[in-house]
Amino acid sequence: MKRYSLLALSVLASLSLMTACTNKTTDSTTSSSSQTTEETTTSSSSSQQVVVKQASIDIEEIQQGDFTSLIGTWANSQGGSLTFDTSGLVTPGFSLAGTFSNQQGILLADALLESGAEGFVLYFVPKGTVLPQDLFEEGSDTSDSNQDRIVFANGPLYGSGLDSYYRQSTSASSDTDPLKNTDTGVILESGPVTIEYANSILGDKGWTVIEGNYTRTEAIPYNLIQGTDGSHYTVYQNGVILDATYTIIYQP
């Protein structure tokens, strides 16, 4: 083992002390910076101080088998309804054939009646898009182009009597923060209740709660859930569901 002179040891000790002080200062600064970032992130996560957006029909995703942008119930003026979860159309008696055709920004999907009756076509129309005139046998698009809609047809389209389905929501007006809205009629009290709720809206994907803050009164109550397919959704205590991009894909 090497032996150092007293002077050498003194110099070595001084250098070590300077290095330690420098590292401590650096570590303290880094720690402070990291803590600030973490607090900002936590604050954003817990209070959702992020820009949330409303889901709109995503034609490309649907063609790839991702039905997230359609999740929920769609209703027409006659009281008919179509319900979608993450697996697709789940309205009893109906099913999608799995064949899609993109025509001028509108997605046509073949659908079937489980009774064996003749099939029909669903037109998925994103808001801001008007059904092209060449799709009509008579008349023109009378649906509300300011909204996403699904048009049901078992033959040529006619402007009069166009059967249009709109996304159903009983949530408060747009002036109310959807994450803080307490008038949704939904109050999820625990993780198991959240999972049961998720099954009814998103479909059963073996959901587990991987994060939650129901006990933190300073934050908007939510549970972060994960499916066996790796998908993640944030389910708020008031029933509002966001996907991983902070897009509202369901409002009760």
TrEMBL record:
Low complexity: compositionally biased ranges: 25-47
Which parts of the chain are coiled coil? none
In alphabetical order, the GO MF annotations are: translation initiation factor activity
- In this chain, the stretch annotated as Disordered covers 24-47
Q: Which InterPro entries match?
A: DUF6287 (IPR046254)
On the tree of life, the source organism's domain of life is Bacteria
User: What Pfam families does UniProt report for this protein, alphabetically?
Assistant: DUF6287
**Signal peptide (UniProt feature, chain positions):** 1-19
Question: Has keyword Signal?
Answer: yes
Which residue ranges does the record assign to the DUF6287 domain?
56-88
Keyword list (alphabetical) reads:
Initiation factor, Protein biosynthesis, Signal
Q: What is this protein called?
A: Translation initiation factor 1 (IF-1)
Q: Which organism is it from?
A: Streptococcus oriscaviae
Taxonomy of origin reads:
Bacteria, Bacillati, Bacillota, Bacilli, Lactobacillales
